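User: Please predict the structure of the protein below. I'd like the answer in structure-token form so I can feed it into my own downstream comparison script.

Assistant: Understood. Taking the following sequence of 207 residues as input:
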Amino acid sequence: MNRKPDRRIVSSRRAEGGQAILESILTMMVLLLVLLGLLQIFQLAAAKILTTYSAFRSLRSYVVGFDDYLVQRSARVAAIGASGKITSPDNDEYSSPRAQFAAEEFMIPEYLSGDRWLEYEYWLGENEYDTDYYHESVTPPATTLTYSTSVPEEAGVATQTVSFRDYPYAILDMADRNRVWIQVGPSTDISSTSSLFNHAADYLSEE
């Protein structure tokens, strides 16, 4: 003789199943936020490392006597890995990241030598948000890459500081495109300094 299952037992099992699903969703959301936060930290750490490298490379160009515009280009190229997408030539010209990388192998040396122009998103404050994904009221930080050289006469040591001004929290923006509930600010500054003996002063004259 078949007995019908107790309705209370069935309802209890359904409630337990629904509770387990809800707990799983909440846990995954927390893990996702932690993952996004770690990715953002890694991105900022990479930008810090590259500004340090940029300060050294551009200062090396300065202390061996390169012109100022070549020093500036050395600073920019050394920080390409943290400079966003390429904007000049237009990023849409490349069919894939591999095609862009292949083109950059030729363009970067020409840019360093002063034979061509090259531009990336975070160099001159031209970074933009795609309006298809971000609310129109959200204004992207005007990120710029700047450098300054200090040469005290008495010490003979040159110091170079390279900075990303208004560097965006791009990873966190993926989770909160309207910046409603992730309140970390739209941007931050990243700066590094390097010092080298000013060799150019031994053989170059300002006259």
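That's the full token string. The longest strand covers residues 157-168.
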